[in-house]
Design brief:
- The protein has helices at about 10-15, 20-40, 50-55, 100-110, 150-160, 175-180, 215-225, 275-290, 305-315, 325-330, 335-345, 345-370, 395-405, 410-415, 445-455, 465-469; strands at about 45, 70-75, 115-120, 140, 140-145, 165-170, 185-190, 210-215, 255-260, 295, 375, 420-425, 430-440.
- With about 475 residues, the protein is α+β, with helices and mostly antiparallel strands.
- The two termini are about 15 Å apart.
Length: about 475
C-alpha cells in the first residue's frame, strides 16, 4: 500500500510509531501534487521547501500532538504568516499576512505539516470553486466538471490523494457540497464545536470549521484532533463531547431515522432531484431499514426561508474589505453585487432576517427532535460543467447554486451537525452522496450511522485523475 492510500488514521499511527518519518510522508504528497495538481486545481499555493523544513524540525514522535507529522493544507481563507493568502480574490492577489489565523495556529500546535493553500472561490461566497486568481478546482471523476465549493480545493486534494484529509469551512454547505461532488466525506460540526471557526463571529452564526476525509473515520479523527485544541471557548459551546472517532467503529444500535426530500428553496428555484441523487437517497433508506433502524418521513414543511437566508448572505458580504469605488475593479460581478446589496440593507430588515432565522432554527429543530438522524439528499444535481454558472447575472447565479445544492444551507442556519457520505455510483462511476443531519451536538450519531453505511457500501475506487497522480 502506498502512503497516500493509507488514510489519515492509519498514516497518523504509522508516524507516531516511527514507521514513517514526517519528511518521507510530506515528500510523497508533494510529489503527487507536483504530478497531478496541474490538471486538478486543488492548490493555489504549494509551500514545498517550507513544508520539508517544518517536517525536519519536528521533535518526536509525540503522542500528545494528534496530528504529528501529518501533511495537511490551509483553505485559502485561512491566513498563515508568511504564505500568500488570496481569499480567492484579485483584491488580495499580492497579500502575505504577518500573523496566522487561530485554525492555522492550532494545526501547528498539533504537529501538522502544512503543504500550502487549497483553492476557494472569492471570499468563499459561492458553492463552486472558479475564481479569477486561480485555475478552477476540477472534479477528479470528470475534469470537465467543477468540484463544488467553497472548499473545492480541499475536497479535490483529498479525493485525488494529494492530502490524507483536509481542514475546511462551511457557511452554507462549503464542506458538504464539494465533498459530495467529488465523492469524499465532509463533516460540518455543530455550531460552537470548534471555536476557532465557530460561526459565533460571523453574521447569522453560519460558518464553522470542519474536516474532509476519504472515510468517516478520517473525518472524525481530524474533528477530534481540532476540538480540544481551540484557543478559546464560548458559553454556547456545542453539547456532547468527543472523541467521535470511536463511534466510527461502533454499532449504533437501533436508531430512529427521519427522512425528507423537502428543501426550504422549493418554489423559489428548481430543486428537482436528478435520477442519481434520488437513487442514492433511496439506497440509503433501504440500507438503514435493513439494518433495523426505524425509518419514517420527518414531515418537515419549511417556509419563509429564501428571504431570510438571502438577506443574511448579502449582509455577510458587506464586510469584505474592498471600498465601494473599487468593487468593480477588484471583485467578480457576483461578489460585487453581494457587497453592494449587503451594504445597502436597512438595519430593520437585517434584524428581521436574524429574528426569522432564529424562528426557523427553533421550528426545524422541533420537527427533527424525535429523530437521532435525519437523511436528505446531499445534492440535487450531478456535477456542473466548468463555466456553467452565470457570470453576468448575479441573481440567476445564486438561484443556480441553490438548485444544485438546496439541502445544505438550512443546516447552517440551524447550527446542526451534518455529514455527507458517498454511497452508490452514477453512470460515470462517481459515487453519489447523501446527507445525514444530527441533533444539536449530535456528531456521534451521524458518525456511527455513516460508518455503518460506509461498511455496507464497501471500498470506493480512486477517481481517474487520482490514478494519474
Amino acid at each position: 500500500m502506498e502512503i497516500h492510500e493509507m488514510g489519515a488514521v492509519a498514516l497518523a499511527a504509522a508516524l507516531q510509531a516511527g514507521e514513517l518519518s514526517p519528511r518521507e510522508v510530506a515528500a510523497h504528497f508533494l510529489a503527487r501534487i507536483e504530478r497531478a495538481d496541474g490538471a486538478l486545481g486543488a492548490f493555489t499555493e504549494v509551500t514545498a521547501e517550507r513544508a520539508l523544513a517544518q517536517a525536519d524540525a519536528l521533535d518526536g514522535p509525540d503522542p500528545g500532538r494528534a496530528l504529528w507529522g501529518l501533511p495537511l493544507a490551509d483553505k485559502d481563507l485561512t491566513a498563515r504568516a508568511g504564505v500568500p493568502t488570496r481569499y480567492g480574490s484579485r483584491a488580495f492577489a499580492s497579500y502575505v499576512p504577518t500573523a496566522s489565523d487561530p485554525l492555522a495556529l492550532a494545526l501547528d500546535e498539533l504537529g501538522a505539516v502544512s503543504l500550502g493553500k487549497t483553492n476557494t472561490p472569492e471570499f468563499g461566497m459561492t458553492g463552486y470553486t472558479e475564481s479569477r486568481v486561480a485555475p478552477p478546482a476540477r472534479n477528479p471523476w470528470d475534469l470537465a466538471t467543477g468540484a463544488g465549493g467553497s472548499s473545492g480545493g480541499a475536497a479535490v486534494a483529498v479525493a485525488a490523494g494529494l492530502l490524507p484529509a483536509a481542514p475546511a469551512s462551511d457557511g452554507g454547505g462549503s464542506i458538504r457540497i464539494p465533498s459530495a461532488t467529488v465523492g469524499v466525506v465532509g463533516l460540518k460540526p455543530s455550531r460552537g464545536r470548534l471555536p476557532m471557526g465557530s460561526g459565533m463571529d460571523v453574521p447569522g452564526g453560519l460558518s464553522v470549521a470542519g474536516p474532509i476525509g476519504r472515510s468517516v473515520a478520517d473525518a472524525a479523527f481530524l474533528l477530534d484532533a481540532l476540538a480540544p485544541s481551540a484557543p478559546y471557548t464560548y458559553a454556547t459551546r456545542a453539547p456532547g463531547e468527543g472523541p467521535f472517532l470511536p463511534f466510527a467503529g461502533r454499532e449504533p444500535g437501533r436508531v430512529r431515522i427521519g427522512f425528507t426530500t423537502e428543501t426550504p428553496w422549493d418554489g423559489w428555484t428548481d430543486t428537482t432531484l436528478d435520477p442519481f441523487a434520488r437513487a442514492a437517497f433511496d439506497a440509503a433508506l433501504e440500507m438503514l431499514a435493513r439494518f433495523g433502524h426505524g425509518v419514517e418521513d420527518a414531515q418537515w414543511r419549511p417556509s419563509g426561508y429564501p428571504e431570510l437566508f438571502t438577506t443574511i448572505w448579502r449582509a455577510s458580504a458587506a464586510r469584505i474589505p474592498v471600498p465601494d469605488e473599487r468593487l468593480d475593479d477588484d471583485l467578480e460581478p457576483l461578489t460585487a453585487w453581494l457587497v453592494r446589496e449587503g451594504r445597502a440593507l436597512p438595519a430593520e430588515r437585517l434584524l428581521a432576517a436574524y429574528a426569522a432565522a432564529t424562528a426557523f432554527e427553533r421550528a426545524t429543530i422541533a420537527v427533527f427532535s424525535p429523530f437521532d438522524v435525519v437523511v436528505t439528499p446531499a445534492l440535487a444535481q450531478s456535477p456542473r460543467p466548468i463555466g456553467w454558472h452565470d457570470a453576468d447575472d448575479p441573481e440567476r447565479n445564486f438561484a443556480q447554486q441553490c438548485s444544485y445544492a438546496p439541502h445544505t444551507s438550512f443546516v447552517n442556519v440551524c447550527g446542526l451537525p451534518a455529514l455527507t457520505i458517498p454511497l452508490v455510483p452514477d453512470e460515470t462511476g462517481r459515487p453519489v452522496s447523501v446527507q445525514l443531519i444530527g441533533r444539536p451536538g449530535g456528531e456521534a450519531a451521524i458518525v456511527a450511522v455513516a460508518a455503518q453505511l460506509e461498511a455496507e457500501r464497501g471500498p470506493l475506487p480512486w477517481p481517474p485523475a487520482a490514478l494519474a497522480g
